[in-house]
C-alpha cells in the first residue's frame, strides 16, 4: 500500500492584543514551547559517550534534575567549556550556550576564508565543541565586525542595545533557565569591546526577560516573561588561574575532577571539544596537569540569600529546588487547583529511580520504568493543559515537562536498543564534491531502517517541508537474532519551489553592516535551519508507545573513509566568478580574463547558456558559452576575455548568468566542512567586484610569496601584473632566493611555519645580499620576541588600530616608499575596511624607521605598524597594517602602497 508522508508544518497562532480566552492562551503556550524546544534527532555520528550504556547513564542523570543553565558569551571560543561539561555531563543540567555573534570578524588561522564564510565555519566548529560540552547552541543576529576596544563602539556598530538584547531576551523566555552565567562582567577587565558588551547585555537581559513591557511582540507570539533566579559572572580572577582571592568569587567549581564515563576530567574532555575550533588556533591548545577550577561571582539573585557566612556557595543550585516534585512549588497558591500535580511528579521521580536501579543490572531492563515514565509525563502534560491554572503558572512548568518527555524518550530508545537510519538510496559518492544534493523539481529515493528488540506496531513517517511528497515503494520486516528490523523505501519528490539549504541570515555588505538581516524568522537564534529531510518512527512496547527520530543523510568517500552528510537542497547549478574581486591597473593593456566556475547538480537534458552581464560599453569574448553536464556533481571552468570600456579609476560589478529551460541562475554556494565537522553551505551572488586602480608596477619585479596562515594577497598581485611565485616553506632550505626582487611572508608565517623559523637566517642573508623582505603581522608575541627573527632588535606587541577610518600620519614623508613607483598621499588611506592594523611593534632599534602613525579614538599614537630598515645591501620591512583585508577588497590606496613597499630599494 502506498503511503504519502505528511508535511512538517507547525503553525504558531498569534494572540490578539485584547483579552484572549484561556483556551487560546494555553494553546499558544504549548505550541510556542514545542516550536522553541524542538525534539532533536540524534546526530548522524554521536560521540561514544552519548551512545549505548554510557549514553543511557547520562540520560538518567539528566532525568533526575530540572536544573537549567544558560551560559552567555560574545564569540565562539569564549565559552567556559569545562564548566559547561561539568554541569551538563557531571550534574545532568540542561544547559544552553548563547554566543552573541559567530566570530566572522576574526582572523582565520587555517585558511584564507574571512567574513561571513568564516562565520559559517566557526558556527560548525562551535557545534562540534558543543557535542563535547553536552549543550544546545543559540546565537543573536549581531555580527563580529573585528576587534573593538570598548563597548561604546560595539553598541554603535550593533545599532544600540535593543537588537542584541531582544535576541537574548528571546532565548531566555524560550529556554527559561534557572541560572544565567555570563562569561564576562561588562567591565574593562573583559578586554574586547564585544566581551564587555556581552556582560552588559547579560545583566540587562536578566531583568528585561521578566518585564512584560519589554519586547511585547515576543509575548504576543507566546514567549511569556521569565525571571531567572540567579546571575553569575566569570572573569573575576586571573585568566586560567587555579588560584583566586576568596573575596572575588562566590563559587568555585572543580572542573579538573575526573568522570569515569568520560574517561578523563571535565576540563580535559572540554578541551578535546574546543580543539575543533581550528580557525581560532585551538588545535594546539592544551591544559597543564593538575587541578583545574572555575570561579564565578553571584551578582544578582531573585532568591533569599544563598551564601554561607564566608560569602560563598557550594554550587549554582544552592537555594533552588531542582527535583521533579519541586516543580509543583512554582505554582505557589495555585497548586491547590491541580491536586494531581505533585503526586504525578513524585511518580516520575520514582520511575527514574527504578530505571537507575535496573540499569545498573542490565541497561535493557530499564526500559519498563522508562516507558512508564514517558507515558506518565505525557499524561501530566495533557491534564495540566486542561487545568484551570494561569498561563504564567503553566509557563513555569511546561518547559521542564517538555524536556523530560524528550529525555524519557531518548532514554527508552537507548535502553531498548531502538534506532532509526535514513539514507539516500545510492552508492557512496567517490568524493565530497560528488555528494548527493536534492534539487528542486527533481526526485530521489530514500531507505529507512528501524531496528528494535521486539517492539510492535512500528511505522516510519518522513518529516518533510511543506509541498514535498513521499510515496512508500517497498516494505520489508525481518528478524535477525534478537533484533527486529523494518525497512521502508520511499520515493521523494522535491517541489520546484523548495527552499535551498542556506543560512537564514545574511548581510548585503559585510564591510558596513554589523547586524544580520533575518530572512526566515522561524529559525532566529538557531545555529542553522534544521535539515530539510528527517523522519520519525513510532513503535509500541509493553507499557506504552514511543518515537525515535533521525536525519536523512547521503554517503561519500573522503581519503578512503566513508562519511555521511545530511541531505541538503541546492540549486540545479551553482555559479561563481573566480576570484570574487579583480583588480585592474589603469596601465593594463587589452582584455582581462574572467573565470566562471559552474557546478551542476543535475544531468542536463539540453544545453544551458552561460553569459556575463557587463557594465555599459564593456565587451566579453565569447559572448555566450554553451554548457552541458553528463552527471550530477560535475564542475566545469569557463574563461571569458573582458575588455573594459575605459580604464579610469573606479569600481564596477560583473555578473554571471546561466540560462537553462526558462530559468536563470545567478548565485553559487560554497560547501563549508572539514572531516571533523558537519557541513553547511554559504551562498553568494555570482558577481565579481572590479576595482580599477591608478597604479604603476615595476615591469621586472619578481616576487616570492611564502604563505602563512592563509591569505589572498598573491592573487591580487598577479592581477595587477606582478610575477608572483608561491614558495613552499618546506623547500625554503634548498630554494635559490637570489632571483627574487622581493620575498613576502604571508600573515602569521612565524606562527604557523616551522620551516620559516628554521631558515630565518637564510631570509636575513637574502636581505643582506640586496633583497627586500616584507614580514606581515604575527600574533605569537612571546615566541616572536624570544626568537629574535628581525635583523635588529624589535619587540612585537598586541597593539592595534581597530577603527578602519582612524587618522594616519606619514612619519617619514620623504621616504621613497611614499613616492616610487606611486605617489602616496593621505587620500590613499581612505576607504579601508574593518581595521587599520594589528600586532604593532612597540619598541625597536634605531636602525628601523617608522613610516606611519595611527591611533584609535582617545588613544595615543601607534607608530610601530610599518617599520623599514636597511640591512646590508637590502631592505627589511615589518608590516602590521591589514593589507590582507585591503587588497582582496580592492582598496586602491592600499594596493598602491603595497606595490611601493615591494619596490623598496629598487629605484
Structural summary, described in words:
The chain has 19 helices and 44 strands. The protein is α+β, with helices and mostly antiparallel strands and 907 residues long. The protein folds into 5 domains: 122 residues, Butyryl-CoA Dehydrogenase, subunit A, domain 3, CATH 1.20.140; 254 residues, Rossmann fold, CATH 3.40.50.10320; 148 residues, Immunoglobulin-like, CATH 2.60.40; 120 residues, Immunoglobulin-like (Sandwich); 206 residues, 3-Layer(aba) Sandwich (Rossmann fold), CATH 3.40.50.880. Strands 10, 11, 12, 13, 14, 17, 18 and 19 form an 8-stranded mixed β-sheet that branches. A 7-stranded mixed β-sheet has the order 3-2-1-4-5-9-6, sandwiched between helices. Strand 18 and strand 19 form a beta hairpin. Helix 2 packs antiparallel against helix 12, helix 3 crosses helix 9 and helix 10 packs antiparallel against helix 11. It is globular and about 90 Å long. 49% of the residues are buried. The N terminus is likely disordered.
In short:
By secondary structure, the protein is an alpha+beta fold. The chain is built from 19 helices and 44 strands.
Helix/strand structural class: alpha+beta
CATH class descriptor of the largest domain: Alpha Beta
The largest β sheet comes out as: 8 strands, mixed
- First-last Cα distance: 84 Å
Number of domains: 5
Catalogue the unreliable spans. 1-39
The CATH topology name of the largest domain reads Rossmann fold
CATH architecture of the largest domain: 3-Layer(aba) Sandwich
Task: For this entry, give a set of tags.
907 residues; alpha+beta; Butyryl-CoA Dehydrogenase, subunit A, domain 3; Rossmann fold; Immunoglobulin-like; 5 domains; eight-stranded mixed sheet; seven-stranded mixed sheet; 19 helices; 44 strands; 24% helix; disordered N terminus
Amino acid at each position: 500500500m502506498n503511503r504519502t508522508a505528511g508535511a512538517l508544518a507547525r503553525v504558531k497562532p498569534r494572540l490578539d492584543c485584547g483579552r484572549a480566552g484561556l483556551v487560546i492562551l494555553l494553546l499558544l503556550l504549548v505550541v510556542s514551547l514545542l516550536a522553541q524546544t524542538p525534539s532533536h534527532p540524534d546526530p548522524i555520528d554521536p560521540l561514544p559517550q552519548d551512545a549505548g550504556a554510557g549514553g543511557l547513564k547520562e540520560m538518567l542523570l539528566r532525568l533526575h534534575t530540572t536544573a537549567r543553565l544558560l551560559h552567555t558569551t560574545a564569540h565562539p571560543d569564549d565559552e567556559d567549556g569545562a564548566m559547561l561539561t561539568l554541569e551538563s555531563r557531571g550534574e545532568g543540567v540542561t544547559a544552553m550556550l548563547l554566543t552573541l555573534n559567530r566570530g566572522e570578524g576574526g582572523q582565520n588561522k587555517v585558511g584564507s576564508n574571512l567574513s561571513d564564510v568564516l562565520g559559517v565555519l566557526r558556527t560548525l566548529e562551535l557545534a562540534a565543541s558543543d557535542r563535547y560540552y553536552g549543550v544546545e547552541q543559540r546565537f543573536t543576529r549581531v555580527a563580529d565586525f573585528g576587534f573593538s576596544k570598548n563597548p561604546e563602539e560595539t553598541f554603535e556598530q550593533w545599532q544600540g542595545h535593543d537588537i542584541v538584547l531582544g535576541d537574548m531576551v528571546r532565548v531566555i523566555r524560550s529556554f527559561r533557565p534557572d541560572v544565567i552565567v555570563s562569561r564576562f562582567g561588562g567591565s574593562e577587565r573583559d578586554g574586547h569591546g564585544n566581551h564587555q558588551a556581552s556582560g552588559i547585555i547579560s545583566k540587562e537581559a536578566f531583568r528585561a526577560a521578566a518585564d512584560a513591557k519589554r519586547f511585547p511582540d515576543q509575548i504576543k507570539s507566546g514567549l511569556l516573561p521569565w525571571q531567572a533566579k540567579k546571575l553569575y559572572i566569570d572573569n573575576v580572577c586571573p585568566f586560567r588561574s587555579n588560584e583566586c582571592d576568596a573575596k572575588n568569587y562566590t563559587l568555585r567549581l572543580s572542573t579538573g575532577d575526573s568522570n569515569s564515563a568520560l574517561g578523563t576530567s571535565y576540563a580535559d574532555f572540554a578541551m578535546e571539544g574546543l580543539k575543533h575550533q581550528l580557525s581560532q588556533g585551538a588545535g594546539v591548545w592544551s591544559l597543564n596537569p593538575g587541578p583545574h577550577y572555575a570561579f564565578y561571582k553571584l551578582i544578582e539573585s531573585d532568591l533569599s540569600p544563598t551564601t554561607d557566612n564566608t560569602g560563598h556557595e557550594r554550587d549554582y543550585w544552592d537555594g533552588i529546588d531542582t527535583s521533579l516534585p519541586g516543580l509543583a512549588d512554582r505554582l505557589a497558591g495555585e497548586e491547590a487547583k491541580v491536586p494531581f500535580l505533585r503526586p504525578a511528579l513524585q511518580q516520575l521521580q520514582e520511575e527514574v529511580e527504578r530505571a537507575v536501579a535496573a540499569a545498573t543490572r542490565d541497561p535493557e531492563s530499564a526500559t519498563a520504568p522508562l516507558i512508564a515514565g514517558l507515558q506518565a509525563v505525557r499524561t501530566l502534560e495533557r491534564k495540566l493543559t486542561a487545568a484551570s491554572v494561569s498561563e504564567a503558572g503553566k509557563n513555569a512548568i511546561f518547559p521542564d515537562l517538555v524536556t523530560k518527555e524528550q529525555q524519557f524518550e531518548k532514554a527508552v530508545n537507548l535502553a531498548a536498543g531502538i534506532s532509526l537510519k535514513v539514507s539516500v538510496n545510492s552508492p557512496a559518492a567517490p568524493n565530497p564534491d560528488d555528494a548527493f544534493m536534492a534539487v528542486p523539481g527533481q526526485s530521489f529515493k530514500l531507505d529507512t531502517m528501524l531496528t528494535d528488540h521486539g517492539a510492535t506496531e512500528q511505522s516510519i513517517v518522513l518529516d518533510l517541508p511543506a509541498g514535498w511528497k513521499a510515496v512508500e515503494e517497498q516494505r520489508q520486516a525481518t528478524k535477525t537474532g534478537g533484533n527486529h528490523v523494518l525497512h521502508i523505501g520511499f520515493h521523494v519528490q522535491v517541489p520546484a519551489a523548495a527552499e535551498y539549504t542556506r543560512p537564514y541570515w545574511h548581510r548585503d555588505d559585510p564591510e558596513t553592516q554589523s547586524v544580520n538581516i533575518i530572512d526566515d524568522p522561524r529559525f532566529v537564534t538557531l545555529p542553522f535551519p534544521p535539515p530539510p529531510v528527517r523522519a520519525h518512527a513510532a513503535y509500541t512496547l509493553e507499557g506504552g508507545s514511543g518515537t525515535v527520530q533521525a536525519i536523512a543523510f547521503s554517503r561519500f568517500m573522503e581519503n578512503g573513509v566513508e562519511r555521511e552528510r545530511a541531505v541538503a537542497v541546492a540549486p540545479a547549478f551553482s555559479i561563481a566568478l573566480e576570484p570574487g574581486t579583480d583588480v585592474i591597473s589603469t596601465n593594463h593593456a587589452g582584455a582581462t580574463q574572467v573565470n566562471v566556475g559552474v557546478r551542476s547538480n543535475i544531468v542536463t537534458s539540453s544545453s544551458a547558456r552561460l553569459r556575463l552581464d557587463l557594465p555599459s560599453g564593456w565587451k566579453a569574448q565569447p559572448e555566450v558559452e554553451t554548457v552541458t553536464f553528463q552527471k550530477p556533481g560535475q564542475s566545469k571552468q569557463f574563461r571569458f576575455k573582458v575588455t573594459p570600456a575605459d580604464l579610469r579609476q573606479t569600481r564596477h560589478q560583473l555578473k554571471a548568468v546561466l540560462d537553462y529551460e526558462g530559468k536563470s541562475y545567478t548565485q553559487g554556494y560554497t560547501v563549508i566542512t572539514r572531516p571533523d565537522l558537519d557541513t553547511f553551505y554559504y551562498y553568494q551572488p555570482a558577481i565579481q567586484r572590479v576595482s580599477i586602480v591608478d597604479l604603476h608596477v615595476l615591469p621586472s619585479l619578481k616576487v616570492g610569496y611564502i604563505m602563512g596562515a592563509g591569505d589572498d594577497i598573491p592573487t591580487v598581485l598577479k592581477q595587477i601584473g606582478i610575477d608572483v611565485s608561491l614558495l613552499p616553506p618546506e623547500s625554503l632550505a634548498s630554494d635559490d632566493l637570489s632571483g627574487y626582487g622581493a620575498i613576502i611572508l604571508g600573515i602569521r608565517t612565524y606562527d604557523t611555519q616551522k620551516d620559516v623559523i628554521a631558515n630565518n637566517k637564510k631570509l636575513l642573508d637574502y636581505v643582506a645580499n640586496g633583497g627586500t623582505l616584507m614580514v606581515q603581522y604575527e600574533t605569537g608575541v612571546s615566541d616572536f620576541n624570544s626568537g629574535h627573527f628581525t635583523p635588529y632588535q624589535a619587540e612585537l606587541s598586541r597593539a592595534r588600530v581597530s577603527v578602519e577610518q582612524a587618522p594616519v600620519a606619514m612619519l617619514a614623508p620623504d621616504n621613497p616608499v611614499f613616492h616610487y613607483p606611486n605617489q602616496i598621499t593621505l587620500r590613499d588611506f581612505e576607504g579601508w575596511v574593518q581595521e587599520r592594523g594589528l600586532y604593532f611593534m612597540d619598541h625597536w632599534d634605531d636602525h628601523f624607521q617608522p613610516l606611519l602613525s595611527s591611533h584609535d579614538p582617545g588613544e595615543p599614537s601607534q607608530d610601530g605598524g610599518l617599520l623599514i630598515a636597511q640591512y646590508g645591501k637590502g631592505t627589511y620591512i615589518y608590516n602590521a597594517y591589514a593589507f590582507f583585508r585591503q587588497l582582496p577588497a580592492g582598496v586602491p590606496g592600499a594596493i598602491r602602497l603595497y606595490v611601493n613597499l615591494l619596490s623598496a630599494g629598487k629605484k
